[in-house]
Amino acid sequence: MTKEKYNVTGMSCAACSAKVEKTVSKLAGMDKASVNLLTNSMQVEYDESKLSPDDIIKSIVNAGYGASLAGDTKEKAKEKSIKKTNDDAISSMKFRLKVSVIFLAILMYFSMGSMIGLPLPNFLSGAGNPVGFALTQLLLVLPVMYVNRKYYISGFKSLGHLSPNMDTLVAVGTIAAFIYGVIAIYVMGYALSNGDMNTVAEYRKNLYFESVSMILTLITLGKFFETGSKARTTDAISKLVDLSPKRANVIRDGVEENILTEDVRVGDIVVIRPGESIPVDGIIIEGSTSVDESAITGESIPVQKDKGDKLIGATINKNGSVKIKASEVGEDTAISRIIALVEEASSSKAPIAKMADKVAGVFVPVVMGIALVTFIVWLVLGYDFSFALNRAIAVLVISCPCSLGLATPVAIMVGTGKGAENGILIKSADALETTHSIDTVVLDKTGTVTKGKPVVTDIIGFDIDDNEFLKLAASVESASEHPLAEAIVEKAKEENLTFSSPENFTAQSGRGIRADIDGKKIVAGNEQAIREAVGNDTGLDSVFDKGNELASQGKTPMYFMADDKLIGIIAVADTIKDDSKEAIEALKARDIDVVLLTGDHKNTATAIAKQAGINKVIAEVLPTDKEEHVRKLMEAGHKVAMVGDGINDSPALARADVGIAIGAGTDVAIESADIVLMHSSLKDVATAIDLSKAVIRNIKQNLFWAFFYNSVGIPLAAGVFYLSLGWKLSPMFGAAAMGMSSVCVVSNALRLRGFKPRNIKNNKSGNDEIVLIENNEKKKEGKTMTTVINVNGMMCGHCKATVEKVTKAVEGVSNSIVNLDAKNVTIEYAEGTDLEKVKKAITDAGYEVV
Hints:
alpha+beta; single chain; six-stranded antiparallel sheet; elongated
């Protein structure tokens, strides 16, 4: 499957976007098409063996619109689409509005000035020279119609393709009024020649030229406000684009050149000086510095970077000059992937939007039918042609489907942009909508609740100074590659202790290590290793009891001996993150169940859960079985979010209703999760849920307003209440109401820009007892089978993630691993699993099973 983005021109309302989407979706080989009226863009996924970009563009052109493949480099395309296009659109609207207002003001002076006592030359007055009066209005309305000719070009072109849109309503309504006015001039001229002054007086009062000018001006005014508001919805993406420097200093052929960032190639040597933004991702080959990575990771403290370390594009070099070798450039940099992710999410559609799209697809033809029926009914009821025409025009101009088309995409764009500002990357509108209904959050332990890095928590020396003890321990552990040893060495460095190099170092896997330190024979290891070293010395039972007490707290005790004498215990643990407890309290305050799902021993898991405030624990779970536990929670009727590091938790992330990955911008996280927390903070889970609820609430408000406006406005414009209450709506007020409806919808969505995470504290007394949920997976019987399925059509990481996700969703499948190079997927499944369901899942996802 190929995934591409297209720019679509000529769309003016939801009916247009629905028409384009429907047309493209019908193409053979098209898997998915999503058109965004707000950004005038379309995202498609299709089988490149059956379709080509030219076929897609041709189908859009045949439907009456323009299209082009978004083929520039990302940075160029973003700059053009976000900044230049918005500026050009606002500038054009401003010119049209100025011309329209000027000529409308003059026209209103001539047509209605006398009603409020304004002086008017006798040769242009309606009473003295009715034909000249009418011709003057005709000449004044022509410039307004000309500068707003876009409505007529688009409207009648769409009508010719049998896909009428909002412009069609405006064009038909105003042209009808204009033609009626022209006919009125001829009728008045004929009546004057026959001395029929009653006919002249009647038609002089119903010329409608001022209505045409007023309708076009008010609609353009509404569009001007709408365009300005829509431009503000792209602020988040614009800010992301602005993070990347536009130029880079590159050394080529021994000479330093200043070139455009998009011209940097992989392997180029880039020079970065203090204070400069890093243009591309790369590896330091010379120098060291500290880097402000807050824009990407949220880490406020600059990070020290030395030779061999990776630098991320769009971060800021603080105080050292370095040279890097470019490793990712253009679309492959972390910031470009983040921008693409935000844009893709902004362009996608939430399930709640489907209702509006279906209505919009048939809305305009129905409205034109209602206008025609309105016109005929009033004529049949005996009212004159002018009254009937007035009612039909009012129906046409008030029934703009723009508010319907903007109700969801504006809120989604602002919402995903606001998420990006808060370090929350939401991959799709579907994920954004689903998140608001989450009632259970399943947390991985290591790297999610905890820091993912062991640290020393306790130093207990026996008849030895703690610093001297730590120095000996760090000396022997410095030769070990075990993560627990690294924690002890780091602790010694923090205390500025100098330690000796070990001699005669030996290690026994799972037991411990031995070495000579400054003439002393040091033994370090677990309880079993120490017992083997000292024999059955019952005098050490109290020491081991202390170690077991530490173990019950989720810590790992390490015992140390010097010259056959026990000198102390050092406990090491993966401690919880500083904000984990606060984050979990925030989730509880939102009535969300929190479950800790980990492969660690139940004692360790329970200890961590107690520290973090988690009441439900599932421990001793194999990585391949995490997905099964998530599935069981979903089958029990829960809406589940799985939060993990995006690598070993990928099956569970893919299975959950919403997969949330901790870790900024990593490939695996972006591929396997629905939401990526750039700041790696668990508190952002609650923020994501709050944001989702705010966006869905906003969309519902927008849809209510759009439907309410049309359900009330159309009957009022048609004159339904005229016979009983005397209410009627002039076309001019209809045009004003139509313009304001879109402005209201967009303005309401823009309120999301002020979104702030709610600071809710959990004030419930609750039961602090930890429930250890039985892990039945260890007791399962039956054989695990493995098979390899060849799959055609997989092209990229997105394809890989999709195939893995759909196959893991099949009952009985415990794991699946895609090999893009070999074009196959390895499936692990329980004996008796129906493999035909697996094949069907792959085929339904748009790929070919060989």
